[in-house]
Amino acid sequence: MLISPRLYAIEVPPWGTAGIENIKYASSKVVYDVTTGDEKALSDILSRVGLLYKLQGSDVFEGSVIVVIHGDAIPFFATNQFEKYKNLMYRANSLTVGTSVEFRMCNAAAKLLNYEAKDIHGFVKMVPMMADAEIARLQHDGYSYIH
């Protein structure tokens, strides 16, 4: 029976191993720029939004997370796609209940895809200008940008 020497060799990485920083995150204002048309990617974004809100202490007065939806992400939030994306939409809506997480959609971009406000789920707020203008406005108001 042959035994690999790697099983018994203790290899020490040249830089050691990573340490864990004990950081307490303060509440902050964040804007997510969401354009993905990929269901898994949107699911991951929703997870990150929820985790960020939780890491910041879930402070509805000091913290704020705004998700700006445009581009290929718009159809996920269309009411006529509810059955197809039901789980994602329940998750997205649940992030807004009793929190300072908001979903906003570019009305102009929605219209380019033939969607009106009446075609989008009620937990989404429609903003008149293109998403870039909304993101720039939020950054001017002190929001940090996350893509």
Automatic annotation (TrEMBL):
This is Uncharacterized protein. InterPro entries: DsrEFH-like (IPR027396), Sulphur_relay_DsrE/F-like (IPR003787). It comes from hydrothermal vent metagenome. It holds the Pfam family DsrE. SUPFAM superfamilies: DsrEFH-like (SSF75169).
